[in-house]
């Protein structure tokens, strides 16, 4: 870091010199434009280029093959990288068949803010219609938490029914898609903020807070995945009322760990973060005792029951990971 004096030029203009070595390294000469970014956090960034890594407005990609996999992989990558628009071109001598175009339409429906604006045999153009100023990072994390925990609760209710006649199934897979959509959107804006300095200001959030939100969202997405796993195992379980009551209590405690930790991350609180970690540790001890009880009881579908218990413990571990993020955030905030 260098310290430079602020100079007053004329009656109302201030100036500061830049290091000669930096100007030389970026091939700058007197009279050339540079880019200045004042930010809401009080910082002023000076850059030789408007963006780092090239513009994110549009990109055009010639597909390596006219296949559904090539279409979906490329669209996912362009969305995650943060492009506003991406055009997929068919390989030379090939056309995009109905299956490839259908794959693009199906994928676009699973991503927040995307729309197909052009679709032919030779090209597909997809645009993002969601402005960063319309996105609330905080509310997106809260929505993801609600989705993941409600899925987890529904999955444990399936275990209560066990191998008995199924009640109308909760659409866990559809809700998991919603969790994936929310996480994908958060990852997209985090990636854009690395390239476009104005993105963070549009989101009205600082970079540390944005990447904390991304880390929290990753763990919440995993909670949703564990809910799907528990739901898929439910029909193979057959627990006694006592054993299920213990499992349900552990699952409730795991969800409390996740909820407490997420709250501590959104509103930095070391006290809540430590409380979540302490509860996670107690849950691990209780889970070992229940695991031993399952071994001794050997209920029908014992293997499935053990895997359900494992997912409950890992749900609490996700909460523990969120609590660690919250601890770091609380240290930065002095909370």
From TrEMBL:
SMART domains: SpoVT_AbrB. This is Phosphate uptake regulator PhoU. One of its GO terms (molecular function) is DNA binding. The lineage of its organism: Archaea, Methanobacteriati, Methanobacteriota, Stenosarchaea group, Halobacteria. It comes from the Archaea. GO terms for biological process: intracellular phosphate ion homeostasis; negative regulation of phosphate metabolic process. Residues 8-54 form the SpoVT-AbrB domain. Pfam families: MazE_antitoxin, PhoU.
């Amino acid at each position: 870091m260098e310290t430079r004096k602020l100079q007053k030029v004329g009656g109302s203009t201030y100036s500061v010199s830049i290091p000669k070595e930096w100007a030389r390294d970026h091939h700058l000469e007197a009279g050339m434009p540079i880019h200045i970014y004042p930010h809401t956090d009080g910082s002023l960034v000076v850059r030789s280029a408007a963006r780092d890594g090239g513009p994110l407005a549009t990109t055009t990609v010639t597909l390596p093959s006219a296949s559904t996999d090539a279409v979906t992989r490329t669209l996912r990558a362009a969305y995650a990288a943060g492009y506003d628009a991406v055009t997929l071109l068919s390989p030379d001598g090939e056309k995009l068949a109905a299956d490839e175009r259908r794959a693009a339409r199906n994928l676009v429906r699973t991503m927040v803010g995307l729309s197909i604006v052009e679709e032919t045999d030779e090209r597909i153009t997809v645009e993002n219609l969601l402005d960063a100023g319309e996105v609330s990072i905080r509310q997106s994390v809260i929505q993801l938490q609600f989705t993941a925990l409600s899925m987890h609760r529904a999955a444990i209710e399936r275990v209560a029914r066990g191998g008995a006649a199924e009640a109308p199934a909760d659409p866990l897979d559809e809700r998991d898609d919603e969790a994936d959509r929310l996480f994908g959107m958060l990852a997209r804006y985090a990636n854009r903020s690395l390239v476009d300095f104005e993105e963070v200001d549009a989101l009205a959030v600082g970079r540390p807070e944005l990447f904390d939100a991304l880390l929290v969202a990753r763990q919440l997405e995993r909670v949703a995945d564990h809910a799907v796993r528990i739901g898929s195992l439910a029909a193979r379980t057959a627990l006694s009322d006592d054993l299920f009551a213990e499992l349900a209590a552990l699952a409730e405690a795991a969800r409390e760990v996740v909820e407490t930790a997420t709250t501590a991350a959104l509103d930095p609180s070391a006290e809540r973060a430590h409380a979540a970690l302490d509860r996670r540790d107690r849950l691990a001890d209780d889970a070992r005792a229940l695991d031993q009880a399952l071994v001794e009881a050997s209920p029908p579908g014992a293997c499935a029951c053990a895997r359900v218990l494992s997912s409950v413990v890992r749900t609490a571990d996700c909460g523990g990971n969120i609590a660690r993020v919250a601890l770091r955030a609380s240290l930065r905030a002095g909370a």
